[in-house]
Each structure stands twice: as structure tokens, then as C-alpha cells.
Amino acid sequence: MRGRSWLGAALVLGAQLRALWLAAAVEVHTAKEVVAVNGTNQRLKCTFSSSSPVGQQLSVSWNFQPEDLGAHEPVFYYLKEPYEPPSGRFKDRVTWDGNIERNDVSIIIWNLKPSDNGTFTCQVTNWPDVYGTIGEVRLRVVQKVNFSEIHFLAVAIGSASVLMVIVVTAVIICRQRRRKARDRRLEAADTE
């Protein structure tokens, strides 16, 4: 009977340790979708949380999956210091914009092109937290900014303001003309 108790306790302890191991994984947080204008620069934000203190073995890897579902491409790597890609579509177009002390591992993509449409992944490992979620950001590069509701509202308010100024000006001018015409009539009546 003692052997069975020991085996049961070991199984329960193993399940608890596994639950703790899964709870200790790195969690990565990103914006799900980003829209940027062709030719501009865009910061791809990625933050993380880890149950372990940030250590010297923290590593970050950014990868890219083109919209046409071509092969994954490395974008950026960080281990103790940032490493820009030595070749590929993002060579000389990506820079580190993170702050490890603040759990920020963001990058900036420069001079966006329509060929940059696709999904960027951000993966963080912080020993012993080597497992966890992978953050994904879908980037859409557009030719020009779409007319949003805020732009429409700004145009409507601006137009209404201009119209109000025109109406007030017209009313003032009409009153002044009427007053001048009345004054002329009174002068003409006085002279008669």
C-alpha cells in the first residue's frame, strides 16, 4: 500500500509542477493589426511579461511571413544586444526601439513598401521561461490614409464654422445697408 501512496503523491506533485511550469511561461503582447502609409516608418510594438527576472539570457526574435504565404524571413534578433539582419528585405530598414528593463522589445521598420504586407512575429525567451506565446502583428501598408470618421467629423465642423461666419457676415452687412438707407430717407425727409 505504501508504494501506491508514494506513486499517487508523485503523480499529483508532477501535475502541480507541470501547471506551475505552464504558468511560468513568457507572455508576449502585440497589437493585432497595424495600418501604415507607404514610404513611412512604423513602430511594431511588442511587450512581454515573465515570471522570472529579466536575465542575460533573454533573447528576442522577430520574423516575417509575407502576405503571399512565402517563406518566413528573419527580421531582427536580440541577445544581450540588438542584431540587425545582415541580408534580406529588411537589411538597413529595421532598428531596435525596445527597452529590456521595461519589458519592451519593439522595433521600427523604415520606408515601408507594399511588399511589407504580412505578419510579423515576436518571440521572447527569458531563461528559465523558454516557452510561451508568440506575438503576431499583421501589417497593412496602404497608399494613402483612408478618410476616417474623425477626418469626416473635422471637415463637417470646419465647414459648419465657415458657413456660420459667412451667415453672420451677411447679416451684419445687410443691417448696415438698411441703416444707411434709413438714414438717407430721414435726411431726405428733413430737407423737404
UniProtKB/TrEMBL annotation:
The keyword Acyltransferase does not apply. Keywords: Disulfide bond, Glycoprotein, Immunoglobulin domain, Membrane, Signal, Transmembrane, Transmembrane helix. The keyword Membrane applies. Residues 24-140 form the Ig-like domain. InterPro entries: Ig-like_dom, Ig-like_dom_sf, Ig-like_fold, Ig_sub, Ig_V-set, Myelin_P0-rel. It holds the Pfam family V-set. It is a single-pass type I membrane protein. Coiled coil: none annotated. One of its GO terms (biological process) is cell-cell adhesion. The chain crosses the membrane at residues 150-174. One of its GO terms (cellular component) is plasma membrane. Residues 1-25 form the signal peptide. Its main location: membrane. It is found in: Membrane. Belongs to the myelin P0 protein family. PANTHER family: MYELIN P0 RELATED, MYELIN PROTEIN ZERO-LIKE PROTEIN 2. This is MPZL2 protein. The lineage of its organism: Eukaryota, Metazoa, Chordata, Craniata, Vertebrata.
